[in-house]
């Protein structure tokens, strides 16, 4: 069926809706990874977004549930150049189309994704709608994204190591797996937990996870992080990094088109080492706002020099904007999950 992606400046790109679902609305963002669509479509950080894959052939290795980052797709729609109808991989359980159909997520194929990506790079990410009607008005959404992806109940994944309170803002499965593999004793908390709730388990460290949307909207989590500054070691990944930065009094801003891909180079300013990292974010900590003399910038992005991590000199607080767990992507920075222990012992 003929379909369109209509952007909120009224630009229209034509394609073919190949899924059962023929409608989806969200912020239209692009990802430059050549592989990793299973992980990206189920990464809770993408909640509320329509994902454009710039790699032209998508679906060719099907879907294996093991690779998913959450229980269901979190994206509002997928836009591809060519959908591969005959996936082949020895671990594939479903075709991408069958999997997205099960969860009523639309796929728009045959789109000139190169032109669409250029448009988003020049004008910036914007809201859009996958629709069969060319004259459809692009709506805006006020969905509480954190509520849609965070756990509703506290749960524990027992380990023999230090106790981590993991504030689930939409945590990816690979982050949990990395922490589990290092033996941490995990208590996973809903995004709106109070300091009292977290204090009850007497954690050795509080970890704020990745997650969707504008960090400034995560008011409860910012307040929670504020309460722990100077009291407990803190670690943040992506949204968690932004939230801890806001709690420290810094500012976050929306990026023009964000970083979404698996080959983002970052440099560790403390030892001049460079790493290739997996990233997925549309906001960043504003460099000029990091004015606290006790806080240093640890990592920067080598493409645009934006902040990729900070560290507190007095308190055991450190954060990263990139995704050290990979999933999808490189594992160059998984050593960071071990480093968490050091920050606990520095306490
Ligand atoms: N992966 C993430 O945690 C994303 C953080 C935030 N939602 C952003 O887009 O910047």
UniProtKB/TrEMBL annotation:
Keyword Secreted attributed: no
Binding site for L-glutamine: 45, 211, 213, 239, 242, 280, 282-283
Highest taxon above the source species: Bacteria
Enzyme nomenclature, EC number: 6.3.5.5
Stretches assigned to the Carbamoyl-phosphate synthase small subunit N-terminal domain: 1-131
Region (CPSase) location: 1-162
Pfam families: CPSase_sm_chain (PF00988), GATase (PF00117)
Pathway involvement of the protein, from the record: Pyrimidine metabolism; UMP biosynthesis via de novo pathway; (S)-dihydroorotate from bicarbonate: step 1/3; Amino-acid biosynthesis; L-arginine biosynthesis; carbamoyl phosphate from bicarbonate: step 1/1
Single GO BP term: 'de novo' pyrimidine nucleobase biosynthetic process
Keyword Amino-acid biosynthesis: yes
Catalytic residues (UniProt): 238, 323, 325
Example of a GO MF term: ATP binding
Entry keywords, A to Z: Amino-acid biosynthesis, Arginine biosynthesis, ATP-binding, Glutamine amidotransferase, Ligase, Nucleotide-binding, Pyrimidine biosynthesis
Known catalytic reactions: hydrogencarbonate + L-glutamine + 2 ATP + H2O = carbamoyl phosphate + L-glutamate + 2 ADP + phosphate + 2 H(+); L-glutamine + H2O = L-glutamate + NH4(+)
Enzyme class: ligase
Subunit architecture: Composed of two chains; the small (or glutamine) chain promotes the hydrolysis of glutamine to ammonia, which is used by the large (or ammonia) chain to synthesize carbamoyl phosphate. Tetramer of heterodimers (alpha,beta)4.
Protein family according to the UniProt entry: Belongs to the CarA family.
Function (record text): Small subunit of the glutamine-dependent carbamoyl phosphate synthetase (CPSase). CPSase catalyzes the formation of carbamoyl phosphate from the ammonia moiety of glutamine, carbonate, and phosphate donated by ATP, constituting the first step of 2 biosynthetic pathways, one leading to arginine and/or urea and the other to pyrimidine nucleotides. The small subunit (glutamine amidotransferase) binds and cleaves glutamine to supply the large subunit with the substrate ammonia.
Identification of the protein by name: Carbamoyl phosphate synthase small chain
Organism encoding this protein: Petrotoga miotherma DSM 10691
């Amino acid at each position: 069926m003929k379909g369109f992606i209509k952007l909120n400046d009224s630009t229209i790109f034509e394609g073919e809706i190949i899924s059962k679902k023929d409608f989806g609305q969200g912020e239209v963002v692009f990802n430059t990874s050549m592989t990793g669509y299973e992980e990206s479509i189920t990464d809770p950080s993408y909640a509320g977004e329509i994902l454009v894959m710039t790699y032209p052939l998508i679906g060719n290795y099907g879907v294996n549930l093991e690779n998913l980052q959450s229980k269901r797709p979190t994206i509002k729609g997928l836009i591809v150049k060519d959908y591969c109808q005959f996936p082949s991989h020895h671990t594939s359980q479903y075709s991408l189309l069958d999997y997205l159909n099960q969860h009523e997520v639309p796929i728009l194929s045959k789109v000139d994704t190169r032109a669409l990506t250029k448009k988003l790079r020049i004008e910036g990410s914007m809201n859009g709608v996958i629709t069969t009607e060319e004259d459809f008005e692009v709506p805006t959404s006020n969905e509480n994204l954190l509520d849609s992806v965070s756990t509703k109940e506290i749960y524990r994944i027992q380990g023999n190591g230090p106790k981590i309170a993991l504030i689930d803002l939409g945590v990816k499965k690979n982050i949990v797996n990395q922490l589990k593999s290092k033996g941490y004793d995990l208590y996973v908390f809903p995004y709106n937990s109070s300091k009292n709730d977290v204090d009850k388990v007497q954690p050795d460290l509080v970890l704020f996870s990745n997650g969707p949307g504008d960090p400034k909207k995560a008011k409860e989590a910012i307040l929670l992080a504020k309460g722990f500054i100077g009291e407990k070691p803190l670690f943040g990944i992506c949204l968690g990094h932004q939230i801890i930065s806001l709690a420290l009094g810094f500012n976050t801003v929306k990026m023009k088109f964000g970083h979404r891909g698996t080959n983002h180079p970052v440099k560790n300013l403390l030892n001049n080492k460079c790493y290739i990292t997996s990233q997925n974010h549309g906001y960043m900590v504003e460099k000029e706002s990091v004015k606290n003399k006790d806080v240093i910038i640890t990592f920067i992005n080598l493409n645009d020099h934006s902040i990729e991590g900070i560290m507190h000199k007095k308190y055991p607080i450190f954060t990263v904007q990139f995704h050290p767990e990979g999933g999808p992507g490189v594992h160059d920075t998984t050593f960071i999950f071990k480093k968490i222990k050091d920050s606990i012992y520095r306490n």
